[in-house]
Amino acid sequence: MFKPRDIIELIADNVKKTKNPFGVPSVLMNRWWKGTDLPAEGDVMLFTGLMYQSVPYIEMTTRHLERYEDSTLADYVKYGKYLPKFLVGLGLALLSSKKEKKKTRDMLQNIVKVLTRSKVDFYYRPELDYYSGVLLYDLGDIDGFITHARFVAERLREKGVKKLITVDPHTTYALKVLYPKYVGETFEVKTYFGKEFRQVHQLLRRPG
Amino acid sequence: MALVDLEFPEQLERFGVDTTLECFNCGTCAAVCPLIHEHFPRKIIRYAQLGAKERILQESDELWRCLHCGLCTYTCPREADPGELILGLRRYVIANWRGTAHV
User: Is residue A168 pLDDT above 70, yes or no?
Assistant: First the structure.
């Protein structure tokens, strides 16, 4: 078994320095919107929290961790945080599966199609789409979570963002429950599949 | 032998846990836990109640086995919220690693 401490400190260091758990630069990670024609202004901002974009990295990292779990290499995880983040991030970005990346890109683009077809007045600003920090909370690094959440909430507030559409339960929970509780910042958060968006809800319920 | 600190449940409040003493160790949580691992989480909750801090730190790896499925919290007859207690103990252990637990 890997030592939880090594993994937690590595993830915490990645979030601190690169704002996501993998140490991958956001410009490499968040590319699904390229080639789409998404408005930069509107009523409510689409906020993916980079969770779908993380899936190829999660799969690849998990595969490698499993491979080395019972070997002596497991002891070297703790030194991971001393490696230059850009190199690690670039390596992960190159090693992760293109097929998986395409799959998650398609998922997000399909969500956009559903929202558009349902005439939801939304916009997207990739530079404001941050990871929520929820993994730090789940792992018990409450100080790391609060620091990161404060950073994200401040960026959103600075740009006047008040309403968000989320696409996954982890980011939704973080923004809806944890941010008000730990950072004192409240946003109007709705999931795209929630009943609040009646048209989306009806469209998703329709067979086929 | 383990040293106990009966004020530990109170100290845990700083880490977001205020139900430590609600548990009466019936073992429902260990019975439903999908990990089926050495009386988890019942044993570590008992350590918390007694304030066996050294034991908690020695066996802290156990805390990160938990997947937060919520079954223990859902079934706990005392509403002691074992899931949240595990999360609070993680915070306590991390604060110890980083030397901030006493602040």
Answer: yes
